[in-house]
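Quick illustration, no need to memorize.
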Amino acid sequence: MSSVICTLFEGNYHYGVAALVNSLFKQGFKGEIFAGYKGSLPDWANNAVNDNSDNWAGCSTLRIFDDLLLHFLPLETDYHLTNYKPDFMLRLLNGPARNAKSIFYFDPDIVITAPWNFINNWPNCGVAVCEDVNSPFPEFHPHRVFWRKFFEEAGFKLQFKEAFYANGGFIGLSENDFEFLNTWKLVQESMAPYIGGLSRSIFKSYQALDPDMQGPFAPFGRTDQDALNAALEAWDKQVSMIGKEAMGFKSGGAIMPHALGSPKPWTKKYISRAFKGRSPNYTDKMFWTSFIGNIPLKPYGGLVIKRKHFEMSVAKFVGRFYKSN
């Protein structure tokens, strides 16, 4: 086992998982993909068969090709999934992915647009991450100063590296840096009492947070992502970050367009949004393109795909006349 990929999903994010897998296939990935989930599996995974060989109760495997396997792993954690990433990756590395030489996590609202060979070699440069849309956070940004003081009391010494602020939707690690996951996990556990537990996040139970813990001015307003950036400062080895262009947040060489916010591409009503000045973007295009051509997963019928591309074409035309303020 060389490189493995993992993701986490629940609800209708299974459409994002299918798009992610298709895009990986198109870019040349071969190997095993591990998808942790809450709830039930989608209809397109009906051919997955029970597989207890990996010592994960309830595991089922969809053999897409002999060299492309998608494992579905049920989860019972009360953590919000966005806060479960380091724990999940560590559990994989101690279990079904124990022979991996590198591991990659992608959020299920990301599609891959760069050759897999490029991404696969990236962790050789250090812990691989992408710059967030909210970056940069300079050395004496109030959040960074707070993190240094807060985590010092928890036994972590944070050392400023650079002003880039990483997005929490992706991380790539070679076996030389697997230990980083323990750092990230411990940082999150230290943060947990401050935010009221790791079941809370910006995406769920947000209003249950105290007012001074919410929003962009709170030191942990983005929970796992803020913890990730604190962990990167606690890490004493190399970090390899690619800028905002990587996730399509600015023009340039997009590697993995990331559909931030809501609604997601699979729920957007493109034409009605266009009349409100919100035209389809590059990430929308890449999401629906992942269901065209010789692809392994087809959660949608062909007519649905054609209709979505037609809707985006109409929406782009409408967008010439309607602009949001």
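The first strand starts at residue 3 and ends at 10.
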